[in-house]
Please model this.
Amino acid sequence: MKPLDPRLLRYARRARTWIAVVAGLGAATAILLIVQAQLLASAITSVFTHDGSPLRPVLIALAVVIAGRAAIAWGTEVSANRASGDVKSSLRRGLLARAVERGPEDPSTGTASLITLATTGLDSLDGYFAKYLPQMFLSVAVPLAVLVRITAADWLSGVIIAVTLPLIPVFGALVGMATGAQAQRRWDALARLSHHFLDMVTGLPTLKVFGRPRASAIEEATQDYRRATMSTLRLAFLSSFVLELAGTLSVALVAVTIGLRLVYGHLDLRTGLLVLILAPEAYLPLRAAAAQFHAVADGLAAADRAMAILDARRDARDAAGRPGRVTAPLGEVRIDHVSVRHDGRPHPAPDDLSFTIEPGRVTVLAGPSGSGKTTLMNVLLGFTRPSQGQVSPLPVRSQIAWVPQRPYLFAGTVSSNIRLGRPDASDGEVRAAAVAAALDDDPLGRTVTERGTNLSEGQRRRVAIARALLADRAMLLLDEPTAGLDHVAEERVLRTLRTEAARGKAVLIAAHHPAVLEAADTIIDLAGALV
Model:
């Protein structure tokens, strides 16, 4: 985890302009700081020595400098927040696109971890851009400018500062490495907590029915998160003490030498005051940057995780399976000796499978559970890469309408969930798709809860089938589409699928129900035989 990661700029090109503005304002701050110190030293010297120099011009100039620093601080904050917004938007769009590309089988885009990463995690970048990044530029511009000015005024003080100043970034780097590791542990604990909470909420109705509430997992994950957070806070307090102590001792060393030389007349008052005013400013930006690093460690950890997902190598399968625009009708799709190996399983499933999906025909994948029916559909969707063999040509997803085993329904109505297949469809087209999916006995305005928990399994499947029919794609992939349907509804759905095939669509069904097998033009037995 780098304090200034160039990958962040790669994902938000517009942010580069704002960050350049922040850097320029940091340089302006350094200049105004030196001017302010010189004006203060001149004013104080005039008061104590009574040299007759007019104070009004100095005070007016001082007021102008202070107002200028306030304006620069405002401009820095605005620019940093704009940069933060650009980077967060870019990363969120990238995460969403990556989740769509890789599909539900990719563990790196699990629901709970992805939501936590895209919301709470990336929101932590506000502190990074609004506070830490401007402070980083100040920690470069201000110490360098101050050191040059002090050395020009008093070379001995310049040498002391030049020797002691590197101690701050060295201590900060050592502390930062420990903070980064701690932030990663805290982030992992938060991700586990999110997973447990999502699983608990999703399965709450079932747990209540069987009287098996499982709050212990959430309690344990919460305690892990609490311990990780407290460890981070302890480290932050300890590191702040170390950095403050190093900075204070360094300034004290400069002040002692200045005081002794003033007493013995080896240094004039104006120069001594200038050095004493500027010396703390040389250490302050570095100490502030190190302190801010603790506050933004979570954001950097989240950004590092997001960029790791986005930087994952996209192979040719991903590019071909990526959602795109249909540029030609779908022809025959050849499955050529395709095998997929799974972790923890001795044999691939499917294993050396070859057949052709033809438009205008209903093809059924048959076989026992675990034979690879769903896996083959994931291959066609671009979610899974074959261990060997290939699919040619691999359809783009805009050519496919997909009904998975557990279709997802969103909170809304039956009609709004069907309309997701084609948002610009008319009410008549939505109604026709519902009738074709044997949903005419359910009112389209019926309320649907998140995940469709208030509907039966058969109703959820028929809503998903209606959604796929409304999409009107060249290929229909259906995984156990008639499970949970009664005999009448099953016949109507299969009749609809036969009609869709007659219209020139390629229909591929994974099922083992006898009625589905009877409706097939071709049956692919994944246990080994082509019927």
Summary: Strands lie at 333-339, 353-357, 362-366, 388-392, 400-403, 412-413, 447-448, 475-479, 506-510, 522-525. Residues 313-328 have pLDDT under 50 and may be disordered.
